[in-house]
Amino acid sequence: MLQTSESRYERWDRFTEWPMAVIALLFLGIYAYVVISNLRPTDVSWPQAFMTGVWVIFALHYVVSLVLVQNRRRWFFTHLHELAMALLPFLRPLQLLRLVKLLSVLHKTAGSALRGRVTLYVAGTSGILVLVASLGVLDAEQNAEGANINSFADAVWWAFVTITTVGYGDHYPVTGLGRLIAVGLMVSGIALIGSVTATLASWFVEKIAETQQEPAEEAGPPSEPASAQ
Asked: What residue numbers bound the domain in which 167 lies?
């Protein structure tokens, strides 16, 4: 019975992987339109209704997954971020991070080399994080008093500076939500830099090994000593 329950969850997860990603992409487009245009709920009502509907879909997906999974306690504690996004409306933009999961499917086209998979994960995750953080911090900051992130260009610049841990300080969040987004981006930046460093190190080690191997191959196998007469 437990095995059947687990199989149902796996089938459900595979079946909903692409539909949920498409919904997240649609959400990205509408959310970007609302944030960059600086629309308020009283200006246009349909974008807010659409984003609320997306939030309901993700909440239902979370509930169904929790019902189908075998070890509910473990799954619950390892998916607290999804619970927070389902319960707290202001965390809805973080649903876009579900697009990172698609990299597990796309990496199959990158070949079997570990470096190819790591490069794909790092590039894809970095792009998604920068975009989500830019939209999130602009949404939180652009109408706040004393804010200095007032355009999408400012938000993208801030996100790149933050995720690379450069920290020029010319743009920075002043709201609590904006600072929370900044903390998440900083932590993610440290992890991504570690992945890039490890990938480059493995590349250098491989190239050095190839360089040392070439002279040995050109010299050929060692000659055997002549036998005693």
From this structure: 111-215
